[in-house]
Amino acid sequence: MPQLNLAWWLFNFLISWITLLIVFTALLSTPPIEKPTNVSAQTTSHPLNVWTWN
């Protein structure tokens, strides 16, 4: 039954594209997650120079 095979292929094709469209729309509509800042790295007033041991 080629009609059933074509209908099943078309159904799967449409469902997969609709699912991808929904997923990408949901991912693009969510705001990006901000990474927490490293507080210990920002509180140092001068950079540590590890090569001044001698």
From TrEMBL:
The keyword Transmembrane helix applies. One of its GO terms (molecular function) is proton transmembrane transporter activity. The chain crosses the membrane at residues 6-28. Its main location: mitochondrion. It is a single-pass membrane protein. One of its GO terms (biological process) is proton motive force-driven ATP synthesis. GO terms for cellular component: mitochondrial membrane; proton-transporting ATP synthase complex. The keyword DNA damage does not apply. It is found in: Mitochondrion membrane. It comes from the Eukaryota. InterPro entries: ATP8_metazoa (IPR001421). It holds the Pfam family ATP-synt_8. Keywords: CF(0), Hydrogen ion transport, Ion transport, Membrane, Mitochondrion, Transmembrane, Transmembrane helix, Transport. Belongs to the ATPase protein 8 family. This is ATP synthase complex subunit 8. It comes from Acanthaster planci (Crown-of-thorns starfish).
